[in-house]
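To whoever picks this up:

The nightly regression suite flagged Demethylmenaquinone methyltransferase as changed. Nothing in the input moved, so I suspect the structure step. Input below, exactly as stored in the fixture:
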Amino acid sequence: MSVVPYKDQQEGKKAQVANMFNNISKRYDLLNHLLSLGIDITWRKKAIKMLQKDQPKVILDIATGTGDFAIEALALNPERVIGVDISEGMLAEGKKKIKNKKLDHLIEMQLGDSEKLLFEENKFDAVIVSFGVRNFENLEKGLADMYRVLKPGGKTVIVEFSKPKKFPFKQGYNFYFKYILPKIGKLVSKDQSAYTYLPESVQAFPDGDKFLTVLEKVGFKNTKCRPLTFGISSIYIGEK
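Regenerated output under the current build:
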């Protein structure tokens, strides 16, 4: 049984995740930076630097949300970044942000399913995801579709939460994630389920070497994992 945001509902994970992000979309950026103490911005910058040598021209940002990773990817001077997300609410916030920054000639935001991408094979020089793969209904299917649309020689760079292993950081992190984060999340977003789901989805996610194994299973090679900030999150890299 996969972890879902609303345990009392009959809808599948994909529909529930879309509804959850629609519910919290207007407060998402505030909460994201607040709950991570702004360190998520640093994580994204480090992830984008992993593509600096490759200089990708056309980039796909999956689970783009409000577009923060897509905007960060402009540091690579691409010709185009396409962001895809299943939440109309998140995309609406992202489109406003991108328009305000006058970046809509470089970034295109589209409604779409990460497990059924509406792009031809071998289209993108790079595929990036930040804090999105653990929300896939079918992890292997989503990663396989990312592999399909990536050009041969192209790279995927994925940032995702992971589980710290070392004492005492592991214990402090688990306490914050289980008891503090849901309370702040509920207070600001008015959706308690969203911030109860977050620690549950992180706990259920196959992080570290387990995730590299899944990447390799769908075809990625030269896979690497780089833990960040005592293992709170990790950057994963794979090549086609």
